[in-house]
Write a structure and sequence with these properties.
The chain is an alpha+beta fold. It has ten helices and nine strands. A five-stranded antiparallel sheet has the order 1-2-3-5-4, with helices on both faces. Strands 6-9 form a two-stranded antiparallel sheet. It has a two-stranded antiparallel sheet with strand order 7-8.
């Protein structure tokens, strides 16, 4: 019995042979583990390895799972200072595999799921974090107009718009009452800083497991999972990355809470902020507590969406329920961070 996330390999191979120069079947397609949103597959064909990302099947929130936006970003950034996999083809015809998808090159590198980098020597870990911050700064200095992304999001008032958007998304996928989320929805708008006019391309999910590193060097060779990217405020990405490092040592979303960073050889948050400021030329923000609390709130809203999809039976990972259960924890941590 086929699973709704299985791909029709013969149909797909015939389609890609017509659409992608040099592509040859037959092919096998195996879904990668992890990832709560757009199912991602390793496609092994006669012509080589590729990666395919598709919208999940089923009823979805209107603005979610925009794989066509991801493809557009890859097209814009490929060959720039921000490393990405080469995009090969976007298929908007849902009848081919059951939903929209795109194909990109396979990048052979390392992904670290644990930000404590247990497989890296302590003496090398700071260099990896330097590469992470340098890549983030490079992203935030992309000339969006020059790469054709000037209309990729609404300019200005980013945090205000995001608070409204994720509050609505949360309410649309709410499955139980979470007092901490209600409190954040009420309190965050009042703490929102005035719009400073800064606009950059933002990744939206910038954490260590969305970065692919060179097989042996402390160098980022591909930034992946651009589903939540938009034109926004660079502090949103920086805050989100630092928030991820504050999380507890949870198997689903491992953070660095309770670890001795100096013993690990990993920079603390103050050092990360200073390094980002040096590389990007931007000042360290005044209301960092808001930025961190906003990041918790946004991730909590995302986790709640995953929980709702799991409840409906169309989530793309076995970890979906577990991620959904994190909503309350994230909301409580956000409230504490806000002070």
């Amino acid at each position: 019995m086929s699973h709704p996330l299985d791909l029709p390999t013969e149909i797909l191979a015939a389609y890609l042979e017509q659409q992608v120069p040099g592509f040859r079947g037959p092919l096998t397609a195996n879904k990668f583990k992890g990832g709560q949103s757009n199912p991602t597959y390793l496609v092994d064909a006669a012509s080589g390895k590729y990666v395919l990302r598709r919208k999940p099947p089923g009823q979805l929130l209107a603005s979610a799972h925009a794989v066509d936006r991801e493809f557009r970003v890859l097209q814009a950034l490929h060959g720039s200072a921000v490393p990405v996999a080469r995009p090969l083809h976007l298929c908007t015809d849902a009848s081919v595999v059951g939903s929209m998808f795109y194909l990109m090159e396979f990048v052979d590198g390392r992904i670290f799921w644990d930000p404590s980098l247990p497989d890296v020597a302590a003496s090398d870990r700071a260099a990896y974090f330097d590469a992470i911050i340098a890549t983030l700064a490079a992203l935030h200095t992309v000339d969006v107009t020059a790469v054709g992304l000037g209309d990729y999001g609404k300019p200005g008032n980013y945090f205000t718009r995001q608070l409204s958007r994720w509050s609505d998304q949360y309410r649309a996928s709410e499955t139980q009452s979470i007092p901490a989320m209600d409190a954040l929805i009420e309190q965050l708008p009042a703490r929102c800083p005035a719009d400073d006019g800064v606009v950059s391309l933002t990744h939206g999910d910038y954490r260590i497991d969305n970065l692919m590193f060179h097989p042996v060097e402390p160098r980022v060779i591909a930034v992946v999972d651009w589903e939540l990217s938009t034109l926004g405020h660079p502090l949103a990405d920086l805050g989100y990355f630092c928030m991820a490092l504050r999380l507890p040592r949870n198997p689903a979303l491992p953070g660095l809470a309770g670890t001795d960073r100096s013993e690990l050889g990993i920079p603390d948050e103050a050092t990360i902020l200073l390094r980002y400021s040096e590389v990007s030329g931007r000042p360290i923000p005044d209301d960092w507590a808001f930025v961190i609390a906003f990041s918790y709130f946004r991730l909590a809203a995302i986790a709640q969406g995953v929980a709702k999809r799991a409840q409906q039976g169309n989530a793309s990972s076995d970890q979906a329920m577990q991620a959904g259960q994190m909503t309350a924890l994230l909301a409580k941590m956000g409230l504490v961070a806000l002070g």
